[in-house]
């Protein structure tokens, strides 16, 4: 079974080797049909304490690391890239 990968924003990096990531998804209301935002916070493992609050990251499901941590940070998502930078990377 493949590991799930989610993208979210770090809301806390105060604990050692752990970041709290807020993942937001959009769902359709079952009765009214309006698109609404739902969010959930995940505790993710950050071995080197390299990620800071406010950064957008991808997290991957892992075997349980502690009581709350079953995710680890995979990498940083560059949300402020200009089209020229994206073309240069490709």
TrEMBL record:
<comment type="function">
    <text>One of the primary rRNA binding proteins, it binds specifically to the 5'-end of 16S ribosomal RNA.</text>
</comment>
<keyword id="KW-0694">RNA-binding</keyword>
<dbReference type="Pfam" id="PF00366">
    <property type="entry name" value="Ribosomal_S17"/>
</dbReference>
<dbReference type="GO" id="GO:0003735">
    <property type="term" value="F:structural constituent of ribosome"/>
</dbReference>
<dbReference type="InterPro" id="IPR019984">
    <property type="entry name" value="Ribosomal_uS17_bact/chlr"/>
</dbReference>
<dbReference type="GO" id="GO:0006412">
    <property type="term" value="P:translation"/>
</dbReference>
<protein>
    <recommendedName>
        <fullName>Small ribosomal subunit protein uS17</fullName>
    </recommendedName>
</protein>
<keyword id="KW-0687">Ribonucleoprotein</keyword>
<comment type="similarity">
    <text>Belongs to the universal ribosomal protein uS17 family.</text>
</comment>
<keyword id="KW-0689">Ribosomal protein</keyword>
<dbReference type="GO" id="GO:0019843">
    <property type="term" value="F:rRNA binding"/>
</dbReference>
<keyword id="KW-0699">rRNA-binding</keyword>
<dbReference type="InterPro" id="IPR000266">
    <property type="entry name" value="Ribosomal_uS17"/>
</dbReference>
<dbReference type="GO" id="GO:0022627">
    <property type="term" value="C:cytosolic small ribosomal subunit"/>
</dbReference>
<dbReference type="InterPro" id="IPR012340">
    <property type="entry name" value="NA-bd_OB-fold"/>
</dbReference>
<comment type="subunit">
    <text>Part of the 30S ribosomal subunit.</text>
</comment>
């Amino acid at each position: 079974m493949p590991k799930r990968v989610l993208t979210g924003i770090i809301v806390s990096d105060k604990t050692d080797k752990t970041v709290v990531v807020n993942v937001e998804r959009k769902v359709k209301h079952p009765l009214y049909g309006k698109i609404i935002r739902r969010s959930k916070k995940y505790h993710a493992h950050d071995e080197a304490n390299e990620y800071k609050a406010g950064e957008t990251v991808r997290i991957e499901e892992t075997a349980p690391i502690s009581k709350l941590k079953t995710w680890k940070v995979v990498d940083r998502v560059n949300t402020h890239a200009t089209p020229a930078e994206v073309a240069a990377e490709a």
